[in-house]
Protein: histidine kinase
Amino acid sequence: MAVLPRSLAGQAFALQAAVIVLVVLAGSTLALLDVKRHGDAAARQQVTAIAVALADSPSTAKAIEDGDAARVLQPVTEAVRTSTDLAFITIMAPDRTRFTHTNPSQIGQKYIGTIEPALRGETYTEIYTGTLGPSVRTIAPVRNARGQIIGLVAAGITTESLAARWRSQWPTIVGVGIGALALSFVGIWAIRRRVLNQTHGLAPDELRVMYDHHDAILRSVSEGLIVLNRNGVALVNDEARRLLALPAGPISRTDLPEFLRGNDPGARDEVRLTDDRVLVVNRSQVSASDSEVVTIRDRTELQGALGELSSLQRFTDALRAQAHESANKLHTVITLVEMGRPDEAVKFATQELALSQQLVDRVSDAVAEPALVALLLGKTAEADERGIELTITEDTHLPAEALLSSQEMVTVLGNLIDNAMDACDRDDPWIEVTVNQNGELQIQVADSGPGMDTATFQRAMQRGYSTKSGADAGHQGLGLALVAQIVNRHGGTLSADLTYGSVVTVTIA
Structure:
């Protein structure tokens, strides 16, 4: 039993070659049969046409009636027979006596064949074996002017001549078949080489195993994977669909987020934000093709943890600053007592304590969310340490049933205050914070900085922006983007303007 080649390309070539050989052989056989059928039909039509033409010729009837048929008609029939390549043309009397024949010695002899239908006035065709062997012949009646049958015309071609005509077509058909085979083999050989290059000579089973492994890896990998090419999106795994909220079925570039629609194959660990996720994107070009591979990691939970850690770190720094400041104040009180001025020591200590307690009481009364109270007090202490005047306005009021969760409130307000601390004017550093919910939630943070123009502000909301430079900038710039993410999730608005300072306002209805 024949064994197929190992590689997919070889098997495809072998199967295609077998199919082509069968098709060409079948086609050639059908062509030969068709030529034979058409040749036989054409021969019947030819002998019938010649027999009828001679029978209907007035000169034929006249020669028979004049009794001079042999002398007059023999040259005519031989000339016609020679020019038409027939085997014989015989003109005879109704009693079968031949007036003409290919072999002159047969003139005057009896015609061998069926003549009864012709004697009845019919034109009759048959295959019959006569003096020249088997032939296809037609017999037509000759009528005089009165319509009487006075003779018969038989024209025929031997079956051997028909076979010769058929065999003469063989070289052409065989040549065409061989040419078709040669051209087909050249084509499938080119296809084989192309498939061989594309499949690297792998066998079908190996390709199937590779596909199964490939599909399993794509489905199980924890990173999103997208392959882009010049035609659009070639591949998207399940994790990428989940992270980017892509629909089922084929994906086009227009379905991708805007930051993936362009061509940027050099991106490395680029942080991008969607409506509800923080993503780390890497893009690389495949050197062997025009494809681009995009990997996506979900950093949402990590970013949230980093934000909480940053808040704790800042709160720790604030506590440390307060401890340092408290130590200085305690030393001052102790020194005043040692100097014999206890009244001034008590006045100094109670005055500082009253101011601090007053701020705590006012913020606690205005804001019902403990986490936000702690954030505001911590930011106030941090700002004081950095020499920034941070004011919580009298308009601040937040009920217990806030439109944002405590974590979202801390993220929004904490990032806005951090941005304001980094951006405020160092010659006149001040920040004003207002948090109010009366039907709709409004968070407003103003600072003495120069602010951002519209284009910069839009870019900061989409991708992140930092006023810092150098190494610090690589870990900053997500604050406003994270705020925009929460605001968009709740259908709110985030705006910036320059009035009495740089003012950023969050409104959520």
Remarks:
- The chain has three domains: 8-168, 221-298, 302-508.
- Residues 302-508 form a domain with the Heat Shock Protein 90 fold (CATH 3.30.565.10).
- The longest strand covers residues 133-143.
- The longest helix spans residues 8-56.
